[in-house]
Amino acid sequence: MYPCLRRPTPGRPTPFWVRRAALHAMVEGTAISQIGWTLKTKTSQPQTFHQGQMIEYWRKPATKDTSGWHGPCRVVRMAEHLGQVIVIINNQDRPCRIQDCRAAIMMVISLYNSTMDNSLEVEVVRRHICQQQQGVICSIGLTCAGGRIRLTKATREYPILKRAILRLCSTTLALRRVVAVSLGWNISKLKGSPLAEVSTIIYWPSSDPTKTTIYSSKSGPVNIARLIGPDRQTSNLFRFYPKDPRIAG
Fold first, then answer.
1. How many other CB atoms are there within 10 angstroms of residue 73's CB atom?
2. Residue 147: which residues within 8 A CB-CB, separation 6 or more?
3. Residue 203 in contact with residue 236, Cβ under 8 Å?
4. Tell me, what's the pLDDT at 121?
5. Structural domain span for residue 99
6. pLDDT (0 to 100) of residue 249
């Protein structure tokens, strides 16, 4: 039997009009809820960076052991209409999404400015890297082998380099407890350190030490060839491991 399409008489509603009224109420309730959610939503203001500012940018990490933040790098210009900020990465202008950028922290800015200075500590580290054979990693500090913690061979062989690194870490990086440091040039891969939880990698082209890039990661192995790309063949590298507070001694 077909439903009655005529309006019901007062006091005698038909099932068709009851269903129609219920559907209308559901649609109205959903619309009111959506308006409420929209009004409660907090809209964040877009970030603005100025030309020459030092910032960090985020890229999806290849592994869970890396944070994804890279930098610092210098801002070339803003492209608000594209939602991008143009920065210098590996001597090239590259776009980054504005929401994936942040101002470089003060420690990074201090380190960047310090590497531009001709301080004795930085000069000792640079000279040692240049004199080192390409692809060879020099490890200064502590290592763990066979369950025993001991000084590396290079630490005993290069006391001047050890003192320069200790002073560089304590003054520029404000880190009193650094358990190990790895340095070299044209490095393809870096091993990790079980004595630390995190690490920081600093690399720069040998032709221009002022173009320093800083990369934070866990203390495990890092594929430098993937991180730096073809420029690694002419890049100097410095990785330090702050002491894990969970390890005694």
1. 24
2. none
3. yes
4. 83
5. 48-104
6. 52
